[in-house]
Design brief:
Blueprint lengths: L2 E2 L4 E5 L2 E9 L3 H9 L5 E17 L7 E17 L12 E12 L3 E10 L15 E9 L2
Antiparallel strand pairs: 1-2, 2-4, 3-4, 4-5, 5-6, 6-7, 7-8
Length: 145
């Protein structure tokens, strides 16, 4: 959705389902072993509900189709699946705040764009010895109604 409150500025709230998967290890030798042998890297899969609130700034000259997007985002962990986790508990915090910045091109029938998301919250749910923060590049396309 978009709520334009002038010809130059608008607000775009969203609700997104985000699924991430990755591998992690505590030993640098595991990366080599997993590539060439039988290492012990673990895989994780996270399902999150993310709610960004983006300010759209028209930067196109006459057409007003090119927009800069900036704003905060709140994410909530819905489900966490980690292979080989013996503790059975969660190693990630369930809530995350982040900032998003990117570009959005809105044509009459379709729209597309790219964003960079930088996490502000420490996601380490085990201890405070290390800071775990997320980063993501989002590429999207859609139909404009």
């Amino acid at each position: 959705m978009q709520f334009n409150f002038s010809s130059r500025f608008g607000l775009q709230p969203e609700v997104n389902f985000v699924q991430s998967s990755f591998e992690f290890t505590g030993d640098a030798n595991d990366v080599y072993n997993d590539i060439f042998r039988d290492g012990s890297q673990k895989t994780a899969k996270l399902n999150c509900l993310e709610i960004p609130l983006l300010l759209n700034i028209n930067i196109g000259l006459e057409s007003k189709r090119l927009k800069l997007q900036i704003g905060p985002s709140y994410g909530n962990l819905i489900r966490e699946t980690i292979d080989s986790l013996k503790a059975g508990g969660s190693i990630y915090k369930t809530a995350e705040w982040s900032m998003i910045g990117g570009f959005f091109i809105q044509l009459p029938a379709v729209h597309f764009g790219a964003r960079y998301k930088m996490g502000l919250t420490n996601l380490n749910g085990i201890d405070d010895r290390q800071q775990w923060k997320s980063q993501a590049i989002q590429v999207f396309a859609g139909i404009t109604l």
